[in-house]
Specification:
With 67 residues, the protein is mainly beta. The chain contains no helices and six strands.
Length: 67
Amino acid sequence: MGAGFSSLAIVDGRIYTLGDRDGAQYLLAFSAEGGAPLWKARVGPVWTDEYGGPRGTPSVAAGLVFA
């Protein structure tokens, strides 16, 4: 999933989280049944400090995912 400390949001059979990978920070979606990747969306550059990685948890409301 990538580097970071984000928690998971599990809604309607999908798992959402954030992670630094491939030189950027991504919002990631996985199937709750089996864990297959569904999609990813770049949300910004990698987080650079002594630990690295995002710390937020995506929120889901009315069919939208907020990161």
